[in-house]
């Protein structure tokens, strides 16, 4: 660790040198400006930390620009499910570590406090870690990079990266914009309400400097509803981002970015509701007998379990709060014959108040009650990256650098109470756990580099590597075991990850490539039920192979085809069951030999003037190893992973045509089809959701200069109740062995219809 701290000092010194280095006359645009296409037919990405045509990058990439994101109402990270067939983001509270979901069936779903994601989220070249953004606004484009990306991207990206670029300030002129999406529960068939207002103002400060301020207010009512009061759960968020761009010389560019988001969530927000219940049964290992049954008890307060039930009944009223903020300083300096880049970033996330699990079953008439106390969780992330990049189109084109990160998290004790309430006013305590203090630190240092050798105008070879040292530690003081309360768990890891490949231009607009790579995702420290002590979950190591073809059709429509295979050593999984005291217990574990293989095809971009179309299909067979035993004791080896559809199809398009000399009409449609998805690692068909379509679209008018528009939109028009999560074995157990099942439903699970307005000034 002493060596790491020495290196931090060296990084800070190098950053200062990069910032204060003398300037020489040469035109060097800001990175975001450089990433703009010279030709409208070119789609430019920064998947290799430099601006390149997407058809020249030997990585399978799905790209969504600002127009596509807006026509599909992609306003949050969870909405990204709809833009790429390979990407899944589960919306269950607390499950989606790091916010990145899964790619090709591989991701990290866990409640472990020290876990990091398999799919990294990078915003304006800053790795977000577990202090990730939630709302997407004023975004220029989003790139979904598939397969291990650890060579060039910081933190853990063993399954892929969601690379987000926001709009840069523009020194050439003033601009402003306001856009809204408005819906209300019960209006036009909308099953919940959501009012989103986004705004932006761009202010030039000089010919070489500008500032851009953007913000969002996102108010949602439902879809969960308290049957006792008739009120929908409110989820309210506010966010703001400021960007400052300064080019003091032709060689030096400075970008300063800051953002802040605050949210308020009522009564657990989107959490468990009952979708299947039974009659009389027993709980607590047979000690508690319920002669009435959950079905009848819930009916007494107006709740009818079944697919799509979003009702609960509770006289409790509780609120949780989160805030997330951060800032970054990026300095780019052109020092012939290479470019120096320094990115210094800090992020902070706080959770306070009563979270989703504050009332697990949210059913007052139930005799058995499980509740968690208030949370106070604080997370901070500091990152520093230094890299050097060569000019393009020379024999050896390279990027190399060093990356340091330090993520700290503290959690105050979170109480757990299991009680029996035979009738109102009488509470019989069954379990009382006062919780534990947690202090987690994850510190890593990496050296990386990747080079492309131009052996001929058509043939290029790729080689890259990253050496990472990582220390994960957890100090825990458990108030449940006062005789032996303290434990310290440490995991030290040193790993080398790499990437090798070749690409060949078959024609001016067609390229083939083949790559092999080994990724790395840091370990976890799992916390089992007391009195057991925390234990280490080993790092996840994927070895992946990809063969792909990219081509440009019709002058601007990109085709991306690929075959992939990945085998994962020590895949990090979580298996949740309901124990004898009705507590949901989740155990983190390593599974050796998980595989993901299949094929994917994507088309995106402009087909011709007036028609933009993005579509894709994936076959991803992501399976447990042979002989794997599920949570129900059955052999599910060789079957599909939980949360991973084997097939998925996406389609998004917009057609525009003149209506009058000053108005254009447009029609947009988007749809997602998924094969069946299982939500538990077992053989229970009742927690597997069937194959289904989710269909949405917009119809509207815009002015010929694109300054003003109005539209009617619809999401999930056929009201398909796709869950975010399902859990079996909710109490009680009947004599016939019937199960009680809970599901979590989010806004993707119900129809939404509303109006959108857009004005640019």
Report a brief summary of the structure.
The chain is mainly beta and 761 residues long. The strands form ten sheets. The protein has a 22-stranded antiparallel beta barrel.
How are the SSEs placed, and which strands pair?
Elements: H1 2-20, H2 31-34, E1 44-45, E2 52-53, E3 61-65, H3 66-71, E4 87-88, E5 102-103, E6 106-107, E7 119-123, E8 126-127, E9 139-146, E10 160-166, E11 175-183, E12 193-206, E13 209-226, E14 231-246, E15 252-266, E16 272-276, E17 281-283, E18 288-290, H4 294-299, E19 311-312, E20 319-335, E21 338-353, E22 368-372, E23 375-389, E24 396-411, E25 416-423, E26 426-433, E27 436-454, E28 459-478, E29 486-507, E30 510-518, E31 524-526, E32 535-537, E33 541-553, E34 557-569, E35 571-578, E36 584-591, E37 594-608, E38 611-623, E39 647-658, E40 663-674, E41 677-678, E42 688-689, E43 692-703, E44 708-715, E45 725-730, E46 740-744, E47 752-760
Parallel strand pairs: 7-10, 13-19
Antiparallel strand pairs: 1-2, 3-9, 4-5, 5-6, 7-8, 9-10, 11-12, 11-47, 12-13, 13-14, 14-15, 15-20, 16-46, 17-18, 20-21, 21-23, 22-25, 23-24, 24-27, 25-26, 27-28, 28-29, 29-30, 30-33, 31-32, 33-34, 34-37, 35-36, 37-38, 38-39, 39-40, 40-43, 41-42, 43-44, 44-47, 45-46
Q: Segments where pLDDT lies below 50 for 5+ residues?
A: 1-40
Q: How does the major sheet shape up?
A: 22 strands, antiparallel, barrel
Q: Taking all residues together, what is the mean pLDDT?
A: 90
Q: What is Rg?
A: 26 Å
Q: What is the terminal-to-terminal distance?
A: 53 Å
Give the % helix. under 10%
**What does the overall shape look like?**
globular
Strand content: over 45%
Going by helix content, strand content and strand pairing, the class is mainly beta
Number of strands: 47
Count of separate DSSP helical elements: 4
